[in-house]
Amino acid sequence: GNSVTQMEGPVTLSEEAFLTINCTYTATGYPSLFWYVQYPGEGLQLLLKATKADDKGSNKGFEATYRKETTSFHLEKGSVQVSDSAVYFCALSISNDYKLSFGAGTTVTVRA
Amino acid sequence: DTGVSQDPRHKITKRGQNVTFRCDPISEHNRLYWYRQTLGQGPEFLTYFQNEAQLEKSRLLSDRFSAERPKGSFSTLEIQRTEQGDSAMYLCASSLAGGLRVNEQFFGPGTRLTVL
């Protein structure tokens, strides 16, 4: 089946620190990969995506590269802000139905 | 368009009661998904529709759960004879059925169910 494993949290950082959240996947087929973010009190929002190997998704200073050889899609940001405090979910979908399979989420807290 | 909406946002019920949730997708989206999220976990797929057709149901969706999308627009999720284990956030998402953004799902704010 399809599954996503992501780094356990919580993660606490200082402002301007470098953030990495690891994500690896297993999939039957060729998945698209996503990072969703859930800010406090808000719904899930798509942060970025990549649909084929070596694609890089980017948004709001976050980046993730689709690595087929290591079945990974790690999320990175070079300099985090307090406003990046949220729960981050890695997810995948397969093109026949597009239903999402999520990781357990990683809570990130950025301190001023 | 204001995005995906869900109603109610919160529902508290007693064990054994029936509850129904509603989801209104983004108007031009013909795919609609339901997920369930428990505390500390990522959302888990329950079922999805393309237009009015229910195309897949997860084994998580026991016979106490039923979902409909009668006119291919809004959808309802009903839980009969609720159990305490049904307490969770129920999320709805919608997407296009084709094109470059077919795999981008937009989520509603969720309905938080508490079964006492």
Summarize this structure briefly:
Chain A is about 0% helix and about 50% strand. Chain A has about 110 residues and is mainly beta.
Shape, principal axes of CA atoms of chain B: globular
Name the biggest interface: A-B, 24 and 25 residues
User: Which assembly state applies to the chains in this document?
Assistant: heterodimer
Please estimate the helix content of chain A.
Answer: under 10%
H/E element order of chain B:
EEEEEEEEEEE
- What integer is the average pLDDT of chain A? 94
Major sheet of chain A: 6 strands, mixed
Q: What radius of gyration of chain A results from the CA coordinates?
A: 13 Å
Unreliable parts of chain B: none
Q: What's the total count of β strands of chain B?
A: 11
Question: Count the strands of chain A?
Answer: 12
Low-confidence spans of chain A: pLDDT under 50, at least 5 residues?
none
Give the terminus-to-terminus CA distance of chain A: 41 Å
Strand content of the residues of chain A, in percent? over 45%
Q: Ends of chain B: how far apart? A: 36 Å
How would you characterize the overall build of this protein?
The complex is a heterodimer of chains A (112) and B (116). Chain A is mainly β and 112 residues long. Chain A is 0% helix and 50% strand. In chain A, the strands form 3 sheets. In chain A, strands 2, 5, 6, 10, 11 and 12 form a 6-stranded mixed beta sheet that branches. The mean pLDDT of chain A is 94. Chain B is mainly beta and 116 residues long. In chain B, the strands form 2 sheets. In chain B, strands 2, 4, 5, 6, 9, 10 and 11 form a 7-stranded mixed beta sheet that branches. Chain B has a 4-stranded antiparallel beta sheet with strand order 1-3-8-7, with no helix packed on it. The chains are: A mainly beta (112), B mainly beta (116). The interface between A and B is medium-sized, with 24 and 25 residues.
